[in-house]
Amino acid sequence: MNVNSFSELVEIAEKTNVSLDKVVLHWEMLDTGEAPEKIIEETSKLLAVMEEEYKLNEGKTFKTLVGLTGTNSKKMLDHLTNALIGKTAFTAAMIAVNMAESNAAMGRIVACPTGGSSGVMPGVLLTLEKIGVERQKLVSGLIVAGAIGKIISKRASLSGAESGCQAEIGSATAMAAGAAVHATGGTPKQVANAAALSLKSLMGLVCDPVGGFVEVPCVKRNASGAVIALLFSDMAKAGVESVIPFDEVAEAMGKVGRMMPESLRETGKGGIADTPTAKMIVQKLSNRFKL
Ligand code: SF4
Q1: For ligand 1, atom 4: residue with the closest CA
Q2: Cβ distance 143 to 92 under 8 Å?
Q3: Separation of 42 CA from ligand 1 center, angstroms?
Q4: Which residues does the chain have with pLDDT short of 50?
């Protein structure tokens, strides 16, 4: 099955009335030789890692590599009942920050699609689990998310060093939005719309980690990714469509990435990494670590 676009997967699912996750499993089998049962098993294990790690880390503070983050998810948990944005969205943001802080503290994460963006997917999936979405549906959602990521990697990139943060947090958000739609009973077209709307909203996002460490702004961007994913999942399920199809959005993201100067692609030289405060932080770190 020589599929190069997400719209082909959506079309096959609609024509055959086979669920999108099953179409993706067949595509994967023909593409990689991996049996569907094996892929389901492996995907379930990835979800288990997210579940176990969050269970271990809920309410904890973290000692991260350079200490620019580590207490934010705990603060957010304490604020949960007062969240103006609503409990579900704030829970997603809080879990996303928790997992991203764990990543910054060298904890076990699922790079989905990367370490820097590893909070977005668990933020969304574990929140859905908390509100009663069946685990098996979350595994199906994660399988669909894998296809979204794979198409982005074919048409653009999943690397901040190559295409900026739009390729990391942007892709993670598109994947999580698609997963949320699928896991909660949305149609294949709604999955594609949620992914397209998410990626469009983060188009152009630069990669600008302070000092080159995956802490600032990375950790908090995971929170925004998780909330944006839930927003566009709901909008797509409400019937809002992306004027530009997902495949073209992914293609455009790749082009934007290729236009980005090196300073905005994980070098720690541009964006917020180039602010006076960031420079002062880096100076202090250099003195502390005698760099
Ligand atoms: S700013 Fe760069 S390093 Fe940080 S999450 Fe985004 S792409 Fe990754």
Answers
A1: 218
A2: no
A3: 26
A4: none
